Amino acid sequence: MLILTYDGTFEGLLTVVYECYYQKLQPQDIQVEGEKEKDFVSRYVFIDTEDEKADKVYRSIEEKISSQALKNCYYAFLSDDETRSISLYHYIRLGFKQGKAIDSFLTQEAVANLHGIMQKVVRERHRMLGLTRFVELEDGSLYGKIQPKYNILSLIAPHFAERLGSERWMIHDEGRNLLVIGTEGKWLLRDYTMKEALKVHKREAFFQSLWKEFHQSIAIKDRKNLKLQGQLMPKRYWHNLTEMQGSPPRDGEK
Amino acid sequence: MELQEKLKILSDAAKYDVSCSSSGSNRKNTPGGLGSASEAGICHSWTEDGRCVSLLKILFSNECVYDCVYCHNKRSNAIPRATFTPREVVELTLNFYKRNYIEGLFLSSGVVNNPDHTMEQLLEVVKRLREEKFNGYIHLKGIPGADPKLIHAAGNYVDRMSINIELPSEKSLLSLAPQKKKESILLPMASIKEEISVYKAEKKISRFTPSFLPAGQTTQMIIGASPESDLNILNLSEGLYNRFSMKRVYYSAYIPANDNSLLPSIQTKPPLLREHRLYQGDWLLRFYGFTAKELLNPANPNFDLDLDPKCFWAIENLQHFPVEINKASYEELLRIPGVGVRSAWKIIKARRVGSLDYQDLKKIGVVLKRAKYFITCKGKYYGGISLYPENIRKQLIQKPKDHQRQLSIFDLYSESILRKEAPSKVMGEL
Ligand code: SF4
């Protein structure tokens, strides 16, 4: 059993695809080096990332399959699904065979698997467009902290870059130690670990309490349905949501 | 009065307005501006009732000179009253928006002094917001009876406008909202429709035409405060979609607010399941090519609470089934219970590269539990029972537990999610 490993970057994975073609390898699995424990029976080969090779694969996916397929691959890559790398490989193989019709082969396992992984990333990206919360800092810039399941920071950044115009803003993926900073339509992604507590603007507390007030008052008591709320807005996002932190006491409630 | 107190009163008073959708507009940010609209709409939070929060939904004022019987804010109710200043609304909107709490503003109001005065205040708010270069989404309520000029002027600043029809018939309107005339609701709707089509025509000639309600108009009616049947209601909705190019009709289960002999008793539970069935029926009108007449008729004027409207229709019309999955047109596929817009589209797509097995359907998102009674796959029938209405009905009736779960899943879901990024579970439902 041959298992190929790579450094965990998109370029790395595309290099793996390249080598599979040119060295005629048939991997049983593709893994990020160090992500999974190695077993005794398999043969592991680490593939070094080479930008040139990655670039070739990148461009041939775009030209010979479709730009949609390329997007699908990138989204799937950002998932934390353990099968993402091998699924992407099978999808690309079939893609080179079938060309731009690839996404019609919905009943083929290679396509169904990749679409499934990608869809989850698409959904979380969309969700985080709404669930990101900014806090105004002392200097007037906006800081948002997120802990998404998938690595969607680079996927939401363009949205906020367009929307927030000349505001200075940051979004911090705490779990992955990544930070996007942006202003005037531009943005930049970099590694980041928070060292000291941020200084919050003095009017921040005021707007936070207004928002919590609103969030409470707008709910219809006769239709209370906490289960539905939890389904649509899973609890794992709550600790970064201003409105879900200690609600103000309501009339008629303790 | 403190801003927080005002916000509490005026968001509480706005909560029965169902619409919170921020979809249908793709307004772009401008240099130095704040905000943009997302065509599909974005939900920012969900409240304890499981409804999506997309817009800062508030009344400008809950003062009202009218006395609509069903309304909590009616003049004769002794309740705390509050009125924002335009500046306060602008500040709240900008600051909530910057923090990404909201997609924009949904502003409505009781009738302060008179309709014109109220509309002027609302106009002032939206005008100021755009002058501050705010490019987020704005949904504004048109006040029935206000000067059409004011309504038009506001249309130049906002993305969507709605004038609520409130009650499903003229008779009910007369008895429950005597100060509102049918004309004061329908005329502005008609003129908004006119204006939108003028705008669309001009836009074709010059792309610099200033926008006018890019997300169109919507309306809302109350279900269960008056005696109309589902057939009456759906007929009315169909008319509104066809004649006024409504983007959406919202239905709001009546929650007793006042004790009055003209209304259902104050103990009445809001008819949530009925509301849900109406949304499903409405969905069938808009996306599945059904007409109101097909779904309901004088002999069957109300939806079956135990069955979703599509199953109900299919059982009454078994002569159209079973349908062969590998041959049926898109329109035919859409009429199969358990096949949604998304799965019908996927079937068509997958058929281009090969024929489909029964096993493949599941992968595509078809709900076989329902669909199997109505289809064949490569000529084979998998339903396992003979095609008799009673047989199938028995199989399809949902257990009470299912009701609970399904209820409101999609009427309260923002339409945005349903349109673009819906989990196939939601789309594949019918
Ligand atoms: S006009 Fe509107 S706010 Fe005033 S009583 Fe009627 S429904 Fe209520």
**Could you tell me how far the N terminus lies from the C terminus of chain A, measured between alpha carbons in angstroms?**
63 Å
Could you give the distance between the termini of chain B? 49 Å
The chain pair with the largest interface is: A-B, 56 and 65 residues
User: What is the topology, as strand order, of the major beta sheet of chain B?
Assistant: 3-4-5-6-7-8
Q: What is the H/E order of chain B?
A: HEEEHEHEHEHHEHEHHHEHHHHEEHHHH
Trace the largest sheet of chain A across and list its strands: 4-5-6-7-8
Specify the biggest β-sheet of chain A: 5 strands, mixed
- Roughly how much helix do the residues of chain A carry, as a percent range? 40-55%
CATH class (first level) name of the largest domain in chain B? Alpha Beta
Described by the principal axes of the CA atoms, the overall outline of chain B is globular
Shape by Cα distribution of chain A: elongated
Q: Give the full name of the CATH homologous superfamily of the largest domain in chain B.
A: Aldolase class I
What are its keywords?
A: 254 residues; alpha/beta; five-stranded mixed beta sheet; three-stranded parallel beta sheet; 8 helices; B: 430 residues; TIM Barrel; 2 domains; six-stranded parallel beta sheet; three-stranded mixed beta sheet
Protein topology:
The complex is a heterodimer of chains A (254) and B (430).
Chain A: E1 2-6, H1 10-22, E2 29-32, E3 43-46, H2 51-65, H3 67-77, H4 84-98, H5 109-131, E4 134-136, E5 142-146, H6 153-163, E6 169-173, E7 178-183, E8 186-191, H7 204-217, H8 226-232
Parallel strand pairs in A: 1-2, 1-3, 5-6
Antiparallel strand pairs in A: 4-5, 6-7, 7-8
Helix pairs in contact in A: 1-2, 2-3, 3-4, 3-5, 4-5, 5-6
Chain B: H1 3-12, E1 45-46, E2 52-53, E3 55-59, H2 86-98, E4 104-108, H3 115-131, E5 137-141, H4 148-155, E6 160-162, H5 170-176, H6 182-205, E7 217-223, H7 230-244, E8 248-253, H8 272-287, H9 292-295, H10 309-316, E9 323-324, H11 330-334, H12 341-351, H13 358-364, H14 368-371, E10 375-377, E11 380-381, H15 389-396, H16 400-406, H17 415-419, H18 424-427
